[in-house]
Amino acid sequence: MRVSETLRTSIRSLGLNKVRSFLTMLGVVIGVFAVISLIALGRGMQNYISEQFDALGSNLLFVMPGRMDMTADPARNFARNKLEKKHVDMINTYASEYVENVAPHIEIGEKIRYKTKTFNAGVIGSSYVGKDMYNFDVKEGSFFTKTDETTKSRVVILGPEVVKKLFPNRSPIGETVKIGDDSYKVIGVFKEKGRAYDEQVIVPYTTLSDTFDIKNYGSISIKVRNAQDVDTATKQIRSALLRDLKPDDFSVMSQKDILSTINSILGILTSFLGAIAGISLLVGGIGIMNIMLVSVTERTREIGLRKALGATSKNIAFQFMIEAILLSIGGGIIGLLFGYLASFVARSFIRAEIPIWSIILALGFSMVVGVLFGTYPALKASRKDPIEALRYE
Amino acid sequence: MYTSKNSSSKNSPILEARNICKYYDMGDTRITAVKNASLSVYPGEFVAIVGKSGSGKSTLMHMIGLLDTPSEGEIVLNGHLTKNFKENQLANIRNSEIGFIFQAFNLLQRTTALDNVILPLTYSNVPKADWNKKAIDMLTMVGLGNRLYNRSNELSGGQKQRVAIARALINNPSIILADEPTGNLDSKTGTEIMELFLHLNTQGKTIVLVTHDDDLAEIAQRKVVLRDGEIINQ
């Protein structure tokens, strides 16, 4: 029997039970959809983070507490955080040759209140130099000054999302908001920069550290004078800090380092989620095998008849195999379309992306599932004794 | 490949069963379905194998139709000893040399008359371009030229059996084996089908009819009577 004819026969057989065929495919549809959309979202996250870092400029270094590599325990790093004021001074003193600015960074989550309205914002404590360092654009009012920093003024610059919620349709400049129990004067509003930034408010780090009694800094950001000196500056900062700290107490990372760490974590996470989604593909395969076994039993007489009319066992096995593969590949293609649709919708929030390899992987895997789970029913069909099969009621 | 289609002369049998036996071992007991049956069918003959239910006539038909292998003895088709043929060769012979007609018609469900008749061609070497014409000719010959695209569930019992006959004839087989072809039909339709068989026989088709009905067997030129697995008269 010709391959084209087997294909035609298989499509017709599947078409005779449209609903059943579709439900059987659904397992593979969901599996492929999950694999494709999770990978697309993972890619989107990586793109998003890269963009956020690119927005900062390329000559920033970060001193983080503890060891920052794949084996590190972040909770332990922050619990044993030793970064404080004297380390900022040490960088300024011993690495001044390459360093333009140093800004400590503290971050807490706190409620911002204005009259009866509240907003859960990220409260960032930064330095007056942070404005240039992070490319923060103030669209209204101004950033705080060195004086504000040294006098620990209670002033705050709000992110645009915070303004939208607390001061709809009017300017917040000059108003007083409450962070925790203390009142802060609003002196500026940031320009939109991306969701993560837009939901933040910034106060002088000195004020935040004093008010909330925070002794250690979450990180110290350093702006290097020239981008090409980043490596030398890293070494110098490291040796400056080693005067007081042990090598395990801190890490000096460039944006590139942080990005590659985050990307590798995201990569592992995406693969892990993809693998879990892959399990649903296997479940889909079991569904196909189940229905194919039912189909073999239901069509016992047909198998007997085909053998009587000249079909060889190989012909019969091939026909059932093709049916299983059509179900799995069909499911794969539908799942791929849904996955593509989902990533298209997600693109309004995040730059989701479907890499070619994920399409090949998903379709290849669904084909393998078809072959793997179609083999047993196909062999079962081909081994049927024609006389027994013709007598089957 | 088996290639001796219709090569038998008028004097040598198309089909020859030589002392064939079929038994089934069930634990310690051996059940014999067919005992030392010898039978020759010559070109153009219309032979009826008659016997009561359980006499072994269907088992005999399955063996001469190469669907089943004898426990003992041998079957010769068109001068070829089929004993040592492999599964593929047997399938090839069933496709080109034997036309089966069953009591329950055995048409593919919800498939058109045309596609049902084409089915044996899909396993043959006939070029695809000829399939439709051959099948339409055959359906017209059995009187269903106006029912080509009706699905099997839209046909009456008599029409279904006519489709089955067209399907059996499509590859121009050497011999037609019909197992109780009127068993599921009313007497009037049954008579029409038997008339069709007679017509085919007058056109030179070799027919072996298996039936429990003595009256039906009278139509045949020769009766082979089976009792308890043994041929008692032919």
What does this structure look like?
- The complex is a heterodimer of chains A (393) and B (234).
- Chain A contains 15 helices and 10 strands.
- Chain A has helices at residues 3-16, 18-54, 74-79, 85-94, 130-133, 146-150, 160-166, 195-198, 205-211, 230-241, 255-298, 300-308, 313-346, 356-382, 386-391, and strands at 60-65, 99-114, 117-126, 138-141, 155-158, 176-179, 182-190, 200-204, 219-224, 250-254.
- A 6-stranded mixed beta barrel of chain A has the order 2-3-8-5-7-6.
- In chain A, helix 2 runs parallel beside helix 13 (313-346), helix 4 packs across helix 10 (230-241) and helix 11 (255-298) runs parallel beside helix 14 (356-382).
- Chain B has a single domain, classed as 3-Layer(aba) Sandwich (Rossmann fold), CATH 3.40.50.300.
- In chain B, 32% of the residues lie in helices and 27% in strands.
- In chain B, helix 3 packs across helix 4, helix 3 (113-122) packs parallel to helix 5 and helix 5 (157-169) runs parallel beside helix 6 (187-202).
- The longest helix of chain B is centred in the last third of the chain and has 16 residues, at 187-202.
- Chain B is globular and about 50 Å long.
- Chain B starts with 14 loop residues before the first strand and ends with a strand.
- Chain A binds chain B through residues 1-2, 5, 9, 12, 16, 301-302, 304-315, 386-387, 390, and chain B through 62, 65, 67-68, 87-88, 91-92, 94-96, 100, 102, 106, 108-111, 119-120, 122-124, 128, 167, 171.
